[in-house]
Structure formats: C-alpha cells, structure tokens
C-alpha cells in the first residue's frame, strides 16, 4: 500500500473491499404510478466498504491540531483541502 501511496503522489490511501449483502426480505418494485413491476426474493447487493486500512503521507500532519479526530473526519478534511485521496482494493 505504501508503494502505491508514494508512486501516485497521494496524500491518503484508503483500503476498500467489495461486500455482498443479502436482504432478509423479498423486494417489491413499483413504477411512478404505483403499478407493480417486479418482486425479487432476498436479492443480493454489492457495495464498496472501508476496510479500516489507511496510509498517509507526511503532508497530512499539517492539517492536524491537538484535538482528537476520527479517521473519517480527517479524510473529509483532506478532501475539502483538495488533497489527493486514492484507494486500493483489499482481497
């Protein structure tokens, strides 16, 4: 991960993973006129989740102060500051 952070000249790298969720229920779809379209029993969906693995460049230190900060808040601060945030898929 550190090699990618350096080679891409990124300020932060977030490890992500694809996650499969299965609904506990059947899902019903309607159109805009409330006409029945379809029912799918316990559909699967896939989303990208934060794997809780991070790498930061030394430039991030300039954005820190003495107050406690959660990583998601730090990532938002980096984004607002126009910093380069990249991701890497973890298997």
Task: Assess the beta-strand content as a share of residues.
Answer: 35-45%
Tell me the total number of β-strands.
5
**Helical residues, percent:** 10-25%
Q: Between the first and last Cα atoms, what is the distance in angstroms?
A: 13 Å
Give the mean pLDDT. 92
Q: How do the SSEs run, as a string of H and E?
A: HEEEEHE
Shape: elongated
Cα-atom radius of gyration: 19 Å
Category by helix and strand content: alpha+beta
- Major β-sheet profile: 3 strands, mixed
Number of helices: 2
Please state how the strands of the largest beta sheet are arranged side by side.
4-1-5
Uncertain segments: none
Number of domains: 1
Task: List the defining traits of the structure above.
5 strands; elongated; 91 residues; 2 helices; two-stranded antiparallel sheet; alpha+beta; 18% helix; 3-stranded mixed β-sheet
Explain what the structure shows.
- The protein is an alpha+beta fold.
- It has two helices and five strands; from the N terminus they run H-E-E-E-E-H-E.
- The protein starts with a helix and ends with a strand.
- The mean pLDDT is 92.
- The longest helix is centred in the C-terminal third of the chain and has 10 residues, at 71-80.
- It has one domain (2-89).
- The strands form two sheets. The protein has a three-stranded mixed β-sheet with strand order 4-1-5. It has a two-stranded antiparallel ribbon with strand order 2-3.
């Amino acid at each position: 991960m550190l090699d990618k952070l350096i080679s891409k000249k990124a300020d932060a790298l977030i490890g992500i993973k694809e996650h499969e969720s299965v609904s506990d229920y059947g899902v019903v779809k309607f159109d805009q006129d409330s006409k029945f379209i379809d029912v799918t029993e316990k559909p699967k969906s896939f989303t990208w989740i934060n794997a809780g693995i991070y790498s930061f460049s030394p430039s991030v230190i300039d954005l820190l102060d003495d107050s406690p900060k959660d990583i998601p808040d730090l990532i938002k601060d980096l984004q607002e500051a126009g910093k380069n945030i990249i991701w890497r898929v973890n298997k």
